[in-house]
Amino acid sequence: MKEAYLIIDIGTGNVRVALANVSGKVITVERDNVHYTIDKLYPAAISFDPDELWSQIISLTKKVLQNNPGVAIKAITASSQREGIVLLGHDGTSLTGLPNHDHRGREWENTIPDNDKDIVYQLAGRYPTSLFSALKITGLKNKHPELYEKIATMVSISDWAQYKLSGVTGYEHSQASETLLYDVAQKRWSKKLCSIFSINENILPELRLSGTVLGKILPEYADQLSISPEAVIVVGGADTQLAIKSTQPSVEDIVLVSGTTTPVVKIINEYTVDKNQRTWTNRHVESDTFILETNAGVTGLNYQRLKEVFYPNEGYEVIEKELAELAGSPQCVASLGSLIADEKSPLTKGGFIFDAPVSDQLTRASFVWAALWDIACCIKENFDSLCDVTPYRQDYVWACGGGLQSAILRQFIASLINKKIKLREGYKQASVVGGALICNQTFGNNEHADTGVEIIEPKDIEQYVSFYKEWKKVRSGFRQIF
After folding, report:
1. Residues 343 and 423 both lie in one domain
2. Average pLDDT over the chain, rounded to whole?
3. Are residue 259 and residue 192 in the same domain, yes or no?
4. Prediction pTM value
5. 264, pLDDT greater than 70
6. What is the span of the domain harbouring residue 340?
7. Are 75 and 168 in the same domain?
8. Number of folded domains in the chain?
9. Does residue 181 sit in the same domain as residue 306?
10. CA proximity to 383, closest of 412, 349, 351, 341
11. Could you report the per-residue pLDDT of 138-185, keeping only the tens digit for each?
């Protein structure tokens, strides 16, 4: 039987279980939507039921294995959305899951004194907002004290999946970077940060290095899934960092990860923060390496939802064909709330601008074109901010993620930042490929598949600069209104 790895990848929109061979090539992927519940005690609180999610993961795993009977699972690892957490009770049960887009802590952001916010930025590498885990816990404690009292352990979502399979808790370093409770430079939990957020540090489990073995699969799951009891559970990490790993970049390279959000990151060797607090500094899954990040915020999720509105029954190839037919005359400009590092606050309102009365040239493709253009422009803005913090002289950037399946978007980005875009084969499943490479690393196997690289060259720069100036006006207008 051929040896293979199972990779569990829990994103914002969907959960995937994938099978990859030992050279890092993805064999198959099964997916399902992640289901969320709104908590009406807060303006923007969302949770998920960990038990329901686990049932989905088991079902997807069975489907993957049943469809590929000729493989022997050597290792299982997990990646997941950053900032998301699962809370465990004293008996080891999963109490609740709080995803990255849960903002139950938003109303307590401004209760943090300014000098403490500066301390948080210096230690945790990011400005404290409700996106991050510590403020989720703060919100939970204030409105669900009975649930807060039951918490014994907090883990990231990927660490939770690994705990379910191995029975061993832990918190991987790239995931710990997203909690506001972790000293990124010193590579450890911070008593000072726990004190600022009044969080008991005893709920934080042992930190674990990506690529280390937690243990063998629990017998109950070995039996249930017909997996060898000798299969090991490997510590994975944050989906962004695993996606970055899939591109096999060098230190000082910049990588764009186009998914639900779009991180724009530079791989660095030394802990660095921005004096203007525009960037995040995270631990990478590579030992003693950091990533310096700006983030365009919700991008791919906007595209996915607009596809559901305008192209509910068509594939992405139909969208690409209709976008190409616009021939540089899109008829529409959008600002959809993506983040820009130089802006102090996000835009939480957005929309489309087009000439009135409505032109007969305005089509459904016009709206999607505008959404992709908004994504590309926000990436450019964040790329420029990152380069302002740390100069970049390469004539290329690496890129990966499902959002880049759009050839139109790839060209927009290349032309706007005036850099070649380099894509490795398998870029659409980047976090899965990264998980396979992590497993290889665990077993000392560095013979990855020799994947081809696609290169997108900048072109039509003057035309895109004109469109970019128009987009800047529209975004400025939305900011003045809202």
Report:
1. yes
2. 93
3. no
4. 0.93
5. yes
6. 244-482
7. yes
8. 2
9. no
10. 341
11. 999 999 999 999 999 999 999 999 999 999 999 999 999 999 999 999
Tell me: do 269 and 221 sit in the same domain. Answer: no
Tokens of 384: 């420029």
Give 12-23 pLDDT, tens digit per residue. 889 999 999 988
Task: Decide if pLDDT at 29 tops 90.
Answer: yes
Q: Where is the domain boundary, 235, 261, 294?
A: 235
Domain CATH for 461: 3.30.420.40
Q: Strands 2-10 and 188-189: what pairing? A: unpaired
Under the banding of pLDDT at 50, 70 and 90, the label for residue 447 is: low
CA 175/CA 155 separation, integer angstroms:
9
Phi, psi of 206 (to 5 degrees): -60, 140
Q: Is the domain of 396 the same as that of 422?
A: yes
User: Does residue 223 sit in helix, strand or coil?
Assistant: helix
Note the maximum CA span of the chain. Answer: 68
Same domain, 169 and 127: yes
CA–CA–CA angle 275, 417, 184 (5° rounding): 35
Q: Using 50, 70 and 90 to split pLDDT, how confident is the model at 399?
A: very high
pLDDT confidence of 463, banded at 50, 70, 90? Answer: confident
Determine the Cα–Cα distance for residues 465 and 439; give it in Å rounded to an integer: 43
Same domain for 142 and 271, yes or no, is no
∠15-17-21 over CA atoms, to 5°?
150
Are the C-beta atoms of residues 390 and 266 closer than 8 Å to each other?
Answer: yes
Contacts of 245 (CB under 8 A, 6+ apart): 284, 285, 286, 434, 437, 438
Give the CA angle between residues 245, 419, 388 to the nearest 5°. 80
> What totals of helices (H) and strands (E) does the chain contain, helices first?
15, 25
Q: Are 32 and 15 in contact (CB under 8 A)?
A: yes
Please give the Cα distance from 435 to 235 (Å, whole number): 9
Give pLDDT, residue 448.
64
Residue with tokens 């703060």: 138
Domain boundary among the residues 213, 235, 257 is at 235
Look-up of token digits 């186009």: 258
